[in-house]
Amino acid sequence: QVVLVSGHLDSWDVGQGAMDDGGGAFISWEALSLIKDLGLRPKRTLRLVLWTGEEQGGVGAKQYYQLHKENISNFDIVMESDEGTFKPSGLGFSGSAEARDIVKEIMTLLQPINVTDVYDNADGTDIAYWMRDGVPGASLHNDISKYFWFHHSQGDTMTVQDPNQMNLCAAVWTVVSYVIADMEEMLPR
To answer: What is the pTM of this model?
Structure first.
């Protein structure tokens, strides 16, 4: 059984892609790194996917889906961060009402960093195939007021990234992915 965390590497125009979507790739990598460093071993596999070709029609996501859809019942949740890694506020979630209640409960663990909201509907080109077929999905919600200042521009460099805000995003990704991967049962469909 798999809990999938992801971001994509799609700097295809003038920018370096540090914020869009290097930040999403980084926090996904960091989540697994933190879990390993803490010596935690969840019941399910945590899988990192660094998508490619999102800007060219999602070809990487489509290929991954085609290769793994036969095991769709083993995918517990698919998570994608693709709106920068600014100050987080919570998660967008798509799934059953029962699964949403569980995710809301998990988010209470993030009260100390004031990131507890669960919004309707997860977004993500790269996880859309899975959500369409009933796999619960989550996307990071954060302050996107500056996102389009840098999106697909020459300004999308590492200087855009605030290490403290990225750490908060990584904390959200780590807590949610680990708790879901370590629950006794998969999220209800």
So the answer is: 0.95
